[in-house]
């Protein structure tokens, strides 16, 4: 996400943080940012694992045929239309 910032960008962000928040608030701010990132990563990991494993797969025998499918199969394909 921030892989292209580089050292000058990080130093600039640190200087702005010192100016706006002061040295007494920086540890609290860093802790809050770290906690937020940790929660975001765990939520992302949980969502990814939920999407990767199907919770209730539908057997193919239970899938109903599409109504009107036989009409679609009888039509002329687009590439054969003159």
From TrEMBL:
GO cellular component: TAT protein transport complex
Presence of keyword Plastid: no
Keywords: Cell membrane, Membrane, Protein transport, Translocation, Transmembrane, Transmembrane helix, Transport
Chief localization: membrane
Membrane topology classification: Single-pass membrane protein
Keyword Thylakoid belongs to the record: no
Membrane-crossing segments per the record: 6-22
GO molecular function terms listed in the Swiss-Prot or TrEMBL record: protein transmembrane transporter activity
InterPro entries referenced in this protein's UniProt entry, alphabetically: TatA/B/E (IPR003369), TatA/E (IPR006312)
BP GO terms, sorted: intracellular protein transport; protein transport by the Tat complex
Localization of this protein: Cell membrane; Membrane
Role this protein plays: Part of the twin-arginine translocation (Tat) system that transports large folded proteins containing a characteristic twin-arginine motif in their signal peptide across the thylakoid membrane. Involved in delta pH-dependent protein transport required for chloroplast development, especially thylakoid membrane formation. TATC and TATB mediate precursor recognition, whereas TATA facilitates translocation. Part of the twin-arginine translocation (Tat) system that transports large folded proteins containing a characteristic twin-arginine motif in their signal peptide across membranes. TatA could form the protein-conducting channel of the Tat system.
The family this protein is said to belong to: Belongs to the TatA/E family.
PANTHER family linked: SEC-INDEPENDENT PROTEIN TRANSLOCASE PROTEIN TATA, CHLOROPLASTIC (PTHR33162:SF1)
Assembly and interaction partners: Forms a complex with TatC.
NCBIfam families the UniProt entry points to: PRK14861.1 (NF011430), tatAE (TIGR01411)
Name of the protein in question: Sec-independent protein translocase protein TatA
Lineage, highest ranks first: Bacteria, Bacillati, Bacillota, Bacilli, Bacillales
């Amino acid at each position: 996400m921030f892989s292209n910032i580089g050292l000058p960008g990080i130093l600039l962000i640190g200087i702005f943080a010192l100016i706006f928040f002061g040295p007494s608030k920086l540890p609290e701010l860093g802790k809050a940012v770290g906690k937020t990132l940790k929660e975001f990563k765990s939520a992302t990991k949980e969502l990814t694992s939920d999407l990767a494993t199907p919770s209730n797969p539908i057997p193919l025998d239970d899938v109903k045929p599409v109504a009107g499918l036989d009409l679609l199969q009888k039509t002329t394909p687009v590439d054969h239309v003159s």
